[in-house]
Write a structure and sequence with these properties.
The protein has about 300 residues and is of the alpha/beta class. It contains 14 helices and ten strands. The chain folds into two domains: about 120 residues, Arc Repressor Mutant, subunit A (Orthogonal Bundle); about 180 residues, Rossmann fold (3-Layer(aba) Sandwich). It has a seven-stranded mixed beta sheet, sandwiched between helices. Strands 1-3-2 form a three-stranded antiparallel beta sheet. The longest helix has 27 residues. The termini are far apart.
Length: about 300
């Protein structure tokens, strides 16, 4: 039997069961834990786990562990699961009930994550002051060329993901805080951005290969980083030659971090990390005074010529 036909039959056999079809529908908007899925489907965890394993083995789902939680999502960069999901009737009674329970679960996840973040006084992770005007300006600033494969470092509540995911090809968000990631997952669920992949990671040692992304964003990261130059050096490593770096940070936080004029300090950091600074734009939102910086990883000399 030809390999392509065999693979297709494997996918169809794996999906050809009511609970597994419901799983594809439930996971289409984004990542969920096993516990959340059992709440949504109203089935036992062992039963749900068996169905999840079959879908993973068939290549329709992927799983990953984040601290003590195991998450499942539609397999990244593979539209087979999405196509099967599109065949389902959204008005089907079971599918509609699953979606309603999922919305309740996601809202509760966001509430708990927000409460824990507030208790730890990490206000920047839940601050919504970057929305609205700043999002529009950012899309405008980047509109001259494709965003392509996007990595958002220090993703926090997911503002930059929500802003740029609709115009990006591949979208990955990284944060060291599991609560921030739970909140970001809730935000992208609400926005219908099932393509967003969120992972726990270290901004000083990103778990990606060299030259893997076209755009790297850092929102309110450098002003609070212990070693901003090291963060930028790692961003430069994962950017493709010619790729763009986007920085948004509080002007006052940058002033404290640089110990001098924030604009001069940011330029110095970028130069040290091997970036070419293209634009620095102060933005006043009414509640925050921000600095938007666009920089680029230079092309090799032969390509630039």
């Amino acid at each position: 039997m030809p390999r392509k036909l065999h693979n297709l039959l494997t996918l169809l056999k794996a999906a050809a069961e009511p609970t597994r079809l419901r799983l594809l529908a439930v996971l289409a908007p984004g990542e969920l834990t096993v516990g959340e899925i059992t709440q949504i489907l109203k089935q036992s965890q062992p039963r749900v786990s068996r169905h999840l394993k079959l879908l993973c083995d068939a290549g329709l789902l992927e799983r990953f562990k984040e601290v003590h939680c195991v998450y499942y999502r539609l397999r990244a960069l593979d539209d087979a699961a999405s196509r099967l999901h599109e065949c389902l009737d959204p008005n089907d009674t079971a599918v509609r009930a699953d979606h309603e329970r999922r919305d309740v679960v996601i809202a509760e996840r966001a509430r708990r994550a927000t409460d824990r973040l507030a208790e730890r006084t990490t206000a920047a992770a839940v601050d919504d002051s970057l929305s609205g005007t700043v999002g529009g300006l950012l899309v405008q600033e980047l509109s001259a060329e494709p965003v392509g494969d996007l990595l958002d470092v220090g993703t926090g509540a997911g503002f930059l993901l929500k802003t740029l995911a609709p115009v990006a090809k591949r979208v990955v968000g990284v944060d060291q805080s599991t609560d921030a990631l739970r909140l970001a997952r809730s935000q992208v669920h609400d926005a219908g951005l099932g393509r967003c992949v969120l992972r726990r990671g270290d901004m000083y040692k990103l778990a990606f290969g060299a030259a893997e992304f076209d755009t790297v964003t850092l929102g309110r990261v450098l002003g609070h980083a212990q070693d901003p130059a090291a963060v930028l050096a790692e961003a430069q490593r994962v950017l493709r030659p010619g790729g763009r770096l986007v920085l948004i940070d509080d002007f006052d936080a940058l002033a404290d971090a640089t110990g001098s004029n924030p604009i001069a300090g940011v330029r110095r950091w970028l130069l040290t990390a091997g970036f070419k600074c293209e634009r620095l734009r102060p933005i006043d939102t009414g509640t925050s005074h921000l600095l938007l910086t666009l920089a680029r990883r230079p092309l090799p000399l032969k390509e630039a010529a």
